[in-house]
């Protein structure tokens, strides 16, 4: 049975989703905010997360981000289900955080069930390559803050619009209704009717209750009224005149109840007409709006604080990447001013996380920064454990709480701290420390959800600053390391120039993984082949490449050409086995128009196209016997005869031939000319099969995986150890070509970051070997280089032909370096 975690701070929403999904056969786990959701994830095996966005402590965006950062939870599908964040920008932001789907409330139950079924019915998704994040963490924080502040501002605006609409509706109601309708609707509020002189002729019960007078006490009163302020008399007379003339006035006045208590009252006024249309009386409805005014004031204060918090967050976000110490000064100062907290401090853990040190403290009243206090785990285990479990601690009565009571005497009481709120600060290496908000005074402070949300945002900004500082330090260390590596590399280059054989020098990579003319290798066998290539390439000698199919003979030919003096001219390839017998002479030497049926125009042959360059005759063993003398003539004389042409042409072409056949056996069978063999066999090179290059198999696999990752948009990074061992034990009759085709098929079939090779499947599928796991350290490069020289010298250290002479080192220096690098002579 699949388990679904539902996270929502509204009980009705939790209950509705639970009923729908339990009826569909799913097990439900509930949480009321993101922090509790993370706790549920730790304690339960969850298959799907459905979360609201607007929640206290940790909202849906922060919860999603926390899940996607955690390796344990990042692959759990995450669905947002919200009625507040419904704009397209909200959805785009949610998807970029890693959400699978985005639902807007309300959504019918069939749609929800169908979505959940689709998620669970999907087969394992094919792994996609990791893309560079479209947002940095700083930009994510800015966008998150803007979206949150936008929602708060929109809610404020909606509330103001609602109030304006209500007033407009009430005003229209007063103008549109007859006297009787006005009276009926006004009965819920205070009703006052006066004659044209201002004498009270009628009041309702609500009016009497508002003022605290009896009806008899009010009827017959004239201006000025005892419940009105004397300073408002002129204003009230002016209003009376305007209403008498037909104006409908709405106004606010401060009235005094019978018990002497003042209150704010709002009025809607109008006149009463007789059948002749004459004004005979005036009326006004009254409402005690003291509470509404207070609510409006609170709303305005909240809007002001929201704007202040927005501005602070934006200012602090811009500090990421700047001086860490100066940024902490600014953060603690602005945070204290914004939340009106006396003390705001940043604390950092020591390496073992057994103590926490006050790195920066700001005091609001004195406007000073301090450092110094330290808390240890051994003295305050309850506090440290609460931090690890909750990530955020909000304590109103810090002096008497069991979490903080251990350091109350030495820290809280001397500093007059009564309430505190601590939030974890993260870094690239785990928890960096906390940001602490400490209230000073006799009156305790109850931390609101808005306070916690702001504190969490500030903690996230500090986390970004910490990570930025750590990255900057790592970059500086990398620069120093690169400088040392460059110096060491220069020393190695000097040593390389002193080697007698060029096949021992370090090429492009210190880990002996070379890419020589598009070839991937690391074995001594293939290194010897390239040594021969380097020797023969600068010459014009004919080269014969011998080896099985799929061993890379064409790449060797291209390497010879590219490193020769002819590399500015073309390399022309001819596959002797792919050309029909009747056309091979024309292909090689060209023909003139009309020289045979179908020769409609002149054609330049391959030999002539390769003039000044190199001609690669692949599969030379397949060349027909009647064509072999013509090839022999060119090798002897450097001349060709064009089919249908007159005379011969002198050409400058270097010939490289290749075959997978045993030409000596072919000579015995009278299928290949012996004299042509001798002409081709000037400089033979045996290309070893893959089974004799076992050490190259991991490198070739890495190369082909990288190649096909790009071709098929995959992100494969690992291969099981036992699979690699099987591949190295295989004989590879098809050589590199067989390996390449096998890896291509494996990349297509693999659905995650681990390579699945048909026929070579892992039995455990647990231990993974990272494809790019070569040791790139300088010591590793020196060790490999010294080992090669020692093996070449048969482990002779001193003397004229010893390793110390080749390395241009004193024998004692070489022995010291061998001891340092752990090099010992193997037992034979």
Q: What would you note in describing this structure?
A:
44% of the residues lie in helices and 18% in strands. The protein is α/β, with parallel strands linked by helices. Strands 11, 12, 13, 14, 15, 16 and 17 form a 7-stranded antiparallel beta sheet that branches. A 5-stranded parallel beta sheet has the order 2-1-3-4-5, with helices on both faces. The protein has a 5-stranded antiparallel beta sheet with strand order 7-6-10-9-8. A hairpin with an 8-residue loop joins β25 and β26. α2 runs parallel beside α3 (60-69). The longest helix is centred in the middle third of the chain and has 49 residues, at 449-497. The two termini are 61 Å apart. The model is unreliable at 126-133, 500-515 and 765-770 (pLDDT under 50).
In short:
The protein is of the alpha/beta class and 828 residues long.
Give the helices and strands, then pairings.
Layout: E1 3-7, H1 11-23, E2 27-31, H2 34-43, E3 48-51, H3 60-69, E4 78-82, H4 88-97, E5 101-104, H5 109-121, H6 137-176, H7 179-186, E6 190-194, E7 200-203, H8 205-211, H9 215-218, H10 233-244, E8 250-256, E9 262-273, E10 279-288, H11 290-317, H12 324-339, E11 343-349, E12 355-363, E13 368-370, E14 374-376, H13 381-390, E15 392-395, H14 408-412, E16 417-427, E17 430-440, H15 449-497, E18 514-516, E19 519-521, H16 524-536, E20 543-546, H17 553-562, E21 571-575, H18 584-589, E22 590-591, E23 603-604, H19 606-609, E24 614-618, H20 628-637, E25 639-640, E26 649-650, E27 654-659, H21 663-668, H22 674-680, E28 683-686, H23 697-712, E29 718-720, H24 721-729, H25 735-749, E30 768-770, H26 778-792, H27 803-806, H28 811-821
Parallel strand pairs: 1-2, 1-3, 3-4, 4-5, 20-27, 20-28, 21-24, 24-27
Antiparallel strand pairs: 6-7, 6-10, 8-9, 9-10, 11-12, 11-17, 12-13, 12-14, 15-16, 16-17, 18-19, 22-23, 25-26, 29-30
């Amino acid at each position: 049975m699949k388990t679904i975690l539902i996270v929502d701070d509204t009980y009705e929403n939790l209950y509705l989703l639970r009923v729908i999904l339990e009826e569909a056969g799913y097990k439900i786990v509930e949480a009321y905010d993101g922090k509790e959701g993370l706790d549920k994830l730790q304690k339960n095996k969850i298959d799907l997360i459905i979360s609201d966005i607007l929640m206290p402590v940790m909202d849906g965006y922060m919860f999603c981000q926390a899940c996607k950062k955690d390796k344990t939870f990042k692959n759990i599908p995450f669905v947002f289900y919200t009625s507040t964040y419904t704009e397209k920008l909200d959805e785009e932001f949610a998807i970029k955080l890693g959400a699978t789907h985005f639902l807007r409330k309300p959504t019918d139950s069939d749609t929800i069930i169908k979505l959940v079924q689709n998620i669970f019915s999907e087969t394992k998704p094919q792994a996609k390559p990791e893309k560079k994040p479209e947002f940095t963490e700083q930009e994510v924080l800015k966008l998150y803050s803007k979206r949150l502040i936008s929602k708060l501002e929109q809610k404020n605006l909606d509330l103001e619009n609602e109030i304006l609409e209500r007033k407009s509706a009430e005003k229209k109601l007063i103008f549109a209704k007859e006297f009787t309708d006005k009276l009926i609707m006004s009965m819920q509020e205070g009703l006052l009717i006066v004659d044209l002189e201002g004498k009270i002729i009628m009041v309702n019960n609500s009016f009497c209750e508002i003022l605290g007078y009896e009806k008899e006490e009010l009827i017959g009163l004239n201006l000025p009224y005892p419940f009105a302020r004397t300073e408002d008399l002129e204003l009230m007379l002016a209003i009376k005149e305007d209403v008498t003339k037909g104006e409908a006035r709405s106004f606010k006045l401060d009235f005094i109840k019978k018990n002497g208590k003042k209150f704010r009252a709002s009025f809607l006024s109008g006149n009463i007409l007789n059948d002749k249309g004459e004004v005979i009386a005036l009326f006004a409805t009254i409402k005690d709006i003291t509470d509404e005014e207070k609510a409006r004031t609170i709303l305005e204060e909240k809007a002001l604080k929201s704007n202040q918090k927005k501005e602070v967050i934006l200012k602090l976000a811009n500090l990421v990447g700047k001086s860490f110490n100066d940024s902490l000064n600014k953060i603690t100062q602005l945070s204290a001013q914004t939340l009106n907290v006396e003390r705001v401090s940043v604390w950092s853990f020591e390496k073992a996380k057994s103590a926490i040190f006050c790195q920066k403290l700001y005091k609001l009243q004195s406007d000073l920064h301090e450092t110094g206090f330290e808390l240890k785990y051994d003295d305050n285990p309850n506090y440290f454990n609460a931090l690890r479990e909750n990530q955020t601690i909000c304590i109103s009565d810090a002096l008497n709480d069991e979490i903080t009571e251990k350091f109350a005497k030495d820290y809280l009481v001397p500093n007059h701290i009564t309430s505190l709120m601590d939030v974890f600060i993260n870094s690239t290496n785990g928890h960096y420390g906390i940001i602490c908000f400490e209230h000073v005074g006799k009156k305790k402070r109850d931390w609101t959800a808005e306070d916690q949300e702001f504190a969490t945002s500030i903690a996230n900004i500090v986390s970004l600053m910490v990570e930025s500082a750590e990255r900057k330090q790592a970059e500086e260390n990398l620069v120093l390391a690169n400088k040392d590596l460059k110096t060491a590399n220069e020393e190695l280059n000097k040593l390389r120039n002193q080697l007698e054989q060029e096949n021992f020098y370090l090429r492009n990579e210190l880990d002996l993984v070379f890419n020589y003319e598009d070839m991937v290798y690391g074995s001594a066998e293939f290194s010897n082949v390239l040594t021969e290539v380097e020797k023969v390439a600068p010459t014009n000698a004919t080269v014969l490449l011998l080896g099985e199919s799929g061993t890379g003979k064409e790449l060797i030919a291209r390497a010879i050409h590219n490193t020769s003096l002819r590399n500015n001219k073309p390399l022309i390839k001819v596959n002797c086995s792919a050309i029909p017998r009747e056309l091979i002479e024309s292909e090689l030497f060209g023909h003139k128009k009309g020289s045979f049926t179908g020769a409609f125009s002149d054609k330049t042959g391959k030999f002539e196209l390769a003039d000044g360059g190199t001609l690669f005759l692949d599969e030379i063993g397949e060349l027909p016997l009647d064509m072999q003398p013509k090839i022999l003539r060119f090798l002897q004389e450097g001349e060709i005869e064009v089919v249908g042409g007159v005379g011969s042409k002198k050409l400058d072409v270097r010939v490289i031939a290749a075959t997978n056949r045993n030409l000596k056996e072919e000579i015995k069978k009278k299928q290949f000319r012996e004299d042509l063999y001798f002409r081709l066999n000037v400089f033979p090179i045996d290309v070893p099969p893959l089974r004799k290059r076992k050490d190259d198999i991991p490198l070739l696999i890495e190369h082909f995986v990288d190649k096909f990752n790009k071709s098929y948009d995959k992100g494969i990074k690992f291969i099981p150890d036992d699979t690699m061992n099987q591949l190295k034990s295989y004989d590879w009759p098809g050589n590199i070509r067989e390996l390449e085709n096998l890896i291509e098929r494996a990349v297509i079939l693999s659905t995650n970051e681990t390579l699945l090779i048909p026929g070579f499947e892992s039995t455990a599928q647990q231990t993974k070997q990272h494809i790019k796991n070569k040791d790139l350290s300088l010591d590793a490069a020196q060790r490999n280089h010294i080992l090669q020289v020692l093996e070449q010298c048969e482990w002779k250290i001193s003397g004229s032909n010893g390793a110390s002479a080749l390395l241009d080192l004193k024998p004692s220096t070489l022995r010291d370096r061998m001891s340092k690098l752990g090099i010992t002579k193997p037992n034979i």
